[in-house]
Each structure stands twice: as C-alpha cells, then as structure tokens.
C-alpha cells in the first residue's frame, strides 16, 4: 500500500488546507494493490497536508485489517524451512505502523546485513504498488497536470480513473500495460521509470510525518520474514542489490 498526491489548484477559500510538504495544493490517493497492478482498496480526497500514516489511521482499511472477520484473510502458513505459522501481510513503507499484518522496513540506523536483505526484498515487493500508480498516471495523464477543479470533483475523477484502470487490466491487460516496462520492473525498476522528471513532480509520494515503531507481534513476524529471506527463501541476486 502507498499514497500519492494529486495536484489541484487552490480551492476557493481553501487557504492552506490542501497545501502539502512539496508546496502545492493536492488531495491524496491512498491505495492497496494486488500482484496484478489492480487497486483493491482506495481512499481518495484527504487533504494534501496529511501524511501516509495519517491517511491510513483514519481509513476503513486499518479497521478491516484489525478485524479479520470483515476481510476474511486466510489463516497463516508456515514459511518453507520454518515451523511457525506466518500471517499474510500487506507491504508498506516506513511511514506506516508495523503490525501483525502490515510489514515495513527496518530502520536504517545500525542496520545489520540480514536486515538490509529483508529491506531489499520488501522494497522489491512494493514495486508493484509503485508501478500501479505509474501505469495509472501514464494512461490517465490528467494526473500529470494541475487539475483546475474543486476537490470534490477531482475525487470523482480519481475514483473513475481507478475503476477504468481495473477494468482495462481485467479485459485488455496486454494493451493497457506495457510489457517492456513490466519486464523492467521485474528486473529492478518500476513503471514510474517511464515518466520524465517533470512528470514525476506531479505524482509525489506522501511524506513520513512520524516514525512508528510497531507492536511486538509485528516485530516478531518481521523477524520471521528476515530469517526466511536470509535462509530458505534467499535469491541469488539479493546480496548484490541489498
């Protein structure tokens, strides 16, 4: 999961309500994607002053993850080479709180080699959500402009674009997504690489407002993944890229 700023003009009598850390007005598109670049949860319309964790903390997604009876997430399974069940998790960046079903990177201060490997593998998995935003912006290029409409109308545009994005992936994925860029993503790049530097300025990642530590269960599960990525689950190239 991740979030992006959608640039807008200053709303009438809006003041600094939508003014973000990059010094422009925006609303936020916060999303969770699956492995096929589809948006499976979106939260649109929060003012741009709020960071990743702020959007997540007020979202229905956080409540649903806390109450598994709503999402019906499958029971955890043992990782290869392990005898402890590990839950299915959502991958997030450092802005989000570590928890039973949300994994984030280890802090960089005093980081060990094994933790660097874990961070690399987590980052590689998160390229899917980055590429999902990149596909959306490259096909619906209104996201690479400043939208001169009120926040309510911009919210409807974003919702419509995300819906059409999912529909086209279901029905015309080979045409809608670029095979060459997807291949580059698998080799270590993201779909955002296809956008120019100027275009990327229109699609900014949210800022980390506060550093979150996470709860005990989250730290234990992260440790299980770290052991797996450095043992039975290691891949040949991770030492080079980490």
From TrEMBL:
<dbReference type="InterPro" id="IPR027806">
    <property type="entry name" value="HARBI1_dom"/>
</dbReference>
<dbReference type="GO" id="GO:0005634">
    <property type="term" value="C:nucleus"/>
</dbReference>
<protein>
    <recommendedName>
        <fullName>DDE Tnp4 domain-containing protein</fullName>
    </recommendedName>
</protein>
<dbReference type="GO" id="GO:0004518">
    <property type="term" value="F:nuclease activity"/>
</dbReference>
<dbReference type="GO" id="GO:0046872">
    <property type="term" value="F:metal ion binding"/>
</dbReference>
<keyword id="KW-0540">Nuclease</keyword>
<feature type="domain" description="DDE Tnp4">
    <location>
        <begin position="1"/>
        <end position="166"/>
    </location>
</feature>
<dbReference type="Pfam" id="PF13359">
    <property type="entry name" value="DDE_Tnp_4"/>
</dbReference>
<dbReference type="GO" id="GO:0016787">
    <property type="term" value="F:hydrolase activity"/>
</dbReference>
<comment type="similarity">
    <text>Belongs to the HARBI1 family.</text>
</comment>
<keyword id="KW-0539">Nucleus</keyword>
<keyword id="KW-0378">Hydrolase</keyword>
<dbReference type="InterPro" id="IPR045249">
    <property type="entry name" value="HARBI1-like"/>
</dbReference>
<keyword id="KW-0479">Metal-binding</keyword>
